[in-house]
Amino acid sequence: xxxxxxxxxxxxxxxxxxxxxxxxxxxxxxxxxxxxxxxxxxxxxxxxxxxxxxxxxxxxxxxxxxxxxxxxxxxxxxxxxxxxxxxxxxxxxxxxxxxxxxxxxxxxxxxxxxxxxxxxxxxxxxxxxxxxxxxxxxxxxxxxxxxxxxxxxxxxxxxxxxxxxxxxxxxxxxxxx
Length: 177
Description:
By secondary structure, this protein is mainly alpha-helical. The chain is built from eight helices and three strands. The radius of gyration is 17 Å and the shape is elongated.
């Protein structure tokens, strides 16, 4: 997917219009390949304060649906959020290569979250097993509250997501708290 196709997916004409929760959700939850240059162009054009706020909101929403016994997944997603928000702050501060680091990390996370991860979901009713992405497993966990069907989740094989090491100052981390 190139820049024009990405912007069509997000229903925007320029990165400056990347300002709604739905834009962020559509971007993260798209499970197809998106050219790294297209992601980079969006990051360069988007307002980073808004991007950070959307990131915070999106992760707050998905963290609400992490099953209570999945502490490792919760901590991993919380760490990813902090890294993405921290990198967006680095972009705002004009740090060297920050746009590239943010676009690379965001695209890696997006692919892991929406398509590359594998979660075992077992129906408590009939024992049927299915394998879903983290995104789809968290959606199923949310649906449990609505339709009453219960599942057990094994996120073990999905916990191998490795964050790139980025240097963040103590002040940057304190601002995020």
